[in-house]
Design brief:
- By secondary structure, the protein is mainly beta.
- The longest helix is centred in the N-terminal third of the chain and has 13 residues.
Length: 398
């Protein structure tokens, strides 16, 4: 249970909680075919997601929301499995009805947070965020909500307090926060305080997250765990919309479903936790004085990911590579001043030996960091260590 490890709970506690989700209990009266209102998930004696919101007891609203979820399809045309899905909150937001639904989509092993809106019994899914951990929505405690008035957060019954990016307490009513000022393309911190429960006997005073901004496209989840606070430092001054782009670090590796890739699903390189940054060296990768070369690292759903950033000494926006899964020899393509550069990075030891094609110049060549100019053909390099030789290829332009 990767997400359970990230939240600091024990695997046993997470498994116990997931076991309680085998069926979503009926928290309010509903028709047999309707979604449950509230999830029958417990942490000891605490109901983690009870029925909440001013419309939680309205049977007609529950039926309308159920029909909207039944009609919804994922980007791969999979549908939600209603018996293990449920309405986490349903009420009025900014004068209009809104339901927040944890939708279980077994076809891709994902869970989705669906926002359902409408009136007079005609509801539709207006916003959908995908989580690649099945059940993530149920054993998480803070979920982002997209509204025209700004970011809100839906919190579980474990949350006693929420602190916004400005360090001030955020008002929570019935599990849903007041609007929070979150920029479009910058990462800002959000911190929850969790009460003592069976899975957290001491509670947790600071459950840290980063909100990557309101400008990210669905179905990407903008909330990233930041337990140590290193992520806030790593993303300081970076454009998160650029990071999330199809060629940026977070958005560049598509998910694979059998023989298919899906550009409309959450990327395989999307961050979930563990964001850190380290400086690997300096180099003049274009006109002007040497700039700083940094490696960004994070945990995605299936792999640890890395990317390379170059911060020009003259200022301006940092240049970013695509993501590269963590490996003994990292290989990135970095566009600098209209030129493609190959950046190679590794944990250096005195016995290492890096080999590149004969005649290839090295713009930067120091232990653990080499930068090569790239032409129109694929370039294969190798790193010989005392244990084995690692090969990587830098692709030709497409």
């Amino acid at each position: 249970m990767l997400a359970a490890r990230r939240t600091g709970r024990t695997t046993a506690a997470a498994l116990a909680l997931m076991a309680s989700l085998a069926g979503c209990g009926v928290v309010t009266d509903r028709a047999p075919a309707d979604l449950s209102v509230g999830h029958d998930s417990q942490d000891g004696s605490l109901m983690v997601w009870p029925a909440r919101g001013s419309l939680a007891a309205e049977a007609a609203t529950t039926t309308a929301v159920t029909e909207a979820v039944r009609a919804w399809r994922s980007p791969l045309d999979d549908r939600a499995y209603l018996p293990t899905s449920g309405i986490l909150w349903v009420g009025e937001v900014d004068g209009a009805p809104l339901a927040l639904v944890a939708a279980d989509v077994p076809g891709t092993g994902s869970s989705w947070l669906l926002q359902v809106a409408g009136e007079a019994g005609r509801h539709t899914v207006t916003h959908a965020v995908e989580h690649t951990d099945p059940g993530y929505l149920i054993y998480s405690d803070v979920l982002p909500v997209h509204t025209d008035a700004g970011r809100r957060y839906l919190v579980s019954a474990r949350v006693t307090d929420l602190t916004g990016p400005d360090g001030e307490a955020v008002t929570i009513e019935g599990g849903l926060s007041a609007p929070v000022a979150v920029p479009a393309c910058s990462a800002v911190p959000v911190t929850a305080t969790l009460r003592a429960t069976e899975s957290l006997p001491q509670g947790r005073a600071t459950d840290r997250f980063l909100d990557l901004g309101t400008g990210l496209d669905a179905p990407r989840d903008p909330l990233v765990r930041d337990e140590s606070g290193s992520g806030q430092q790593a993303l300081a001054g970076l454009d998160t919309c650029a990071l999330a782009g199809d060629e940026g670090p977070f958005g560049s590796i598509q998910r694979q479903f059998g023989s298919r890739k899906s550009a409309k699903s959450v990327p395989a390189s999307w961050p979930m936790s563990g964001l850190t940054i380290r400086t690997v060296g300096e180099g003049a990768l274009g006109a002007g004085p040497p700039g700083e070369v940094q490696q960004l690292t994070w945990e995605a759903a299936g792999d640890e990911m890395t990317a390379m950033l170059y911060r020009p000494a003259t200022g301006g926006a940092p240049l970013m590579s695509a993501a590269d899964p963590a490996a003994p020899l990292q290989a990135y393509v970095l566009p600098v001043a209209g030129q493609r550069l190959g950046v190679l990075s590794w944990q250096s030891t005195p016995e290492d030996s890096l080999s590149v094609p004969a005649g290839t110049s090295r713009l930067v060549d120091r232990p653990g960091l080499t930068v090569l100019p790239l032409a129109d053909e694929k370039v294969t390099v190798s790193l010989a260590t005392t244990e084995e030789t690692h090969y990587r290829s830098l692709p030709a332009p497409q």
